C-alpha cells in the first residue's frame, strides 16, 4: 500500500513538474517576444537613388570636399553616393578604368571627372546605351556624351589668372604656365586663350606654356630650374596643380629667387597655404569644392526625378592671398 502511494505521489509530482516547465517556457516566450518587439531595428526603405562619384584623386583634400558636398545633398534627397577613383598609392592611376567599372555596376547616375582618353569616350557611350546619366566634373571632355557639366568656367579661370599675372608681376616680363603633365585636356587651350586675353592690354607681358614636349629629355624639375636660372625676364610662374605649385616653390626657394619670381597657384593645400602666409606664393585661385559637390548631386537628382537638368553649372572661384588669410583669422 505504501509503495502504491509513493507511485501515485511520484506521478503527481512528475505531472506538476511538466506543467511548471511548460508554463515557464510560455512566460519566457512572451517576455522574449515582447523584448524583440520593443528592440526591433527598422531598417527602413532602401535608398531610392544610387550615385557613384569618380574623383581625379580621391585622397586629395579637394575631392574629399567635393564628396562631402555631394553627401550633404544626398542625405536630404533619399539617395546614397559613393566615392571611387585613383589615389596616390593606387595601382590604377587612370579615371577611365573607374568609369568603366562604374558603368558596369549600373548605378542610377555617375558624377565623374572624365579625362580625354578614348577609353573614357567608350565608357560614356556604353553608359548612354544603358540609360545611365553622367555628369562630368571639372573637365568637360566629350560634352555630347554627358548629361551636364559642373565645374569652373575655364575662360573665367584663365581671365582671373591672367589678371593675377599683371597684379603680381607687373606690366612687363615673362609668365610661365605649368600645364598639367598627367593628361592633355581640351579645356586648357580655352584657359590659355583667356590668360592671353587678360594681358593683351600689356604687350610687354609674354606668356608661354610648359608642357611635356617642351622638356625634351629633362625631368620637369630640371627643366623648371633651368628656365629659372637662364630666363632673366621670368618673373611669374603659374601652376595648375598642387604638385607643380610645391615643385616650383621649392625650386624658387632653393635657387634663392623668391624675391624675383612670383608664384600663382590654382588649387590650395595646407602646405601651399603655409607658403602663402610666408609670402613665397603670392596668390592662389581656389574652387569652392563643397559647392561643386552639392551642385553636381543636386543636378543629377533633379534629372533623375524630373528628366531635366541644366547643361552647364558653374561653381565659384575665389582668390586667396596672405592678406585674406590674415583677415580670416581675425
Automatic annotation (TrEMBL):
GO MF, any single term: carbohydrate binding
UniProt keyword Signal present: yes
Domain of life of the native organism: Bacteria
Key words, A-Z: Signal
Location of the Periplasmic binding protein domain: 53-305
SUPFAM superfamilies per UniProt: Periplasmic binding protein-like I (SSF53822)
Matching InterPro entries: Peripla_BP_I, SBP_2_dom
Compartments where located: Cell envelope
One CC-aspect GO term: cell envelope
Family: Belongs to the bacterial solute-binding protein 2 family.
Protein name, as recorded: Substrate-binding domain-containing protein
Organism: Teretinema zuelzerae
Amino acid at each position: 500500500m505504501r509503495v502504491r502511494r509513493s507511485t501515485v505521489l511520484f506521478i503527481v509530482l512528475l505531472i506538476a513538474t511538466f506543467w511548471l516547465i511548460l508554463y515557464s517556457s510560455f512566460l519566457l516566450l512572451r517576455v522574449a517576444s515582447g523584448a524583440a518587439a520593443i528592440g526591433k531595428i527598422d531598417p527602413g526603405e532602401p535608398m531610392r537613388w544610387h550615385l557613384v562619384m569618380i574623383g581625379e584623386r580621391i585622397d586629395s583634400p579637394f575631392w574629399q570636399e567635393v564628396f562631402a558636398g555631394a553627401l550633404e545633398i544626398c542625405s536630404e534627397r533619399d539617395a546614397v553616393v559613393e566615392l571611387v577613383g585613383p589615389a596616390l598609392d593606387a595601382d590604377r592611376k587612370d579615371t577611365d578604368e573607374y568609369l568603366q567599372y562604374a558603368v558596369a555596376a549600373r548605378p542610377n547616375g555617375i558624377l565623374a571627372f572624365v579625362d580625354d582618353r578614348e577609353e573614357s569616350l567608350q565608357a560614356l557611350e556604353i553608359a548612354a546605351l544603358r540609360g545611365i546619366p553622367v555628369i562630368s566634373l571639372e573637365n568637360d571632355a566629350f560634352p555630347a556624351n554627358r548629361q551636364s557639366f559642373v565645374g569652373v568656367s575655364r575662360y573665367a579661370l584663365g581671365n582671373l589668372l591672367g589678371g593675377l599675372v599683371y597684379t603680381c608681376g607687373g606690366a612687363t616680363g615673362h609668365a610661365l604656365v605649368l600645364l598639367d603633365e598627367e593628361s592633355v585636356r581640351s579645356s586648357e587651350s580655352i584657359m590659355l586663350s583667356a590668360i592671353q586675353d587678360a594681358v593683351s592690354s600689356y604687350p610687354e607681358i609674354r606668356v608661354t606654356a610648359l608642357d611635356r614636349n617642351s622638356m625634351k629629355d629633362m625631368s620637369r624639375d630640371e627643366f623648371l630650374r633651368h628656365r629659372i636660372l637662364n630666363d632673366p625676364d621670368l618673373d611669374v610662374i603659374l601652376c595648375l596643380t598642387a604638385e607643380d605649385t610645391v615643385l616650383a616653390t621649392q625650386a624658387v626657394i632653393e635657387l634663392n629667387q623668391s624675391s624675383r619670381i612670383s608664384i600663382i597657384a590654382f588649387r590650395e593645400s595646407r602646405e601651399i597655404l603655409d607658403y602663402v602666409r610666408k609670402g613665397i606664393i603670392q596668390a592662389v585661385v581656389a574652387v569652392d569644392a563643397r559647392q561643386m559637390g552639392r551642385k553636381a548631386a543636386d543636378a543629377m537628382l533633379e534629372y533623375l526625378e524630373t528628366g531635366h537638368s541644366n547643361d552647364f553649372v558653374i561653381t565659384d572661384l575665389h582668390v586667396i592671398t596672405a592678406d585674406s588669410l590674415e583677415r580670416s583669422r581675425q
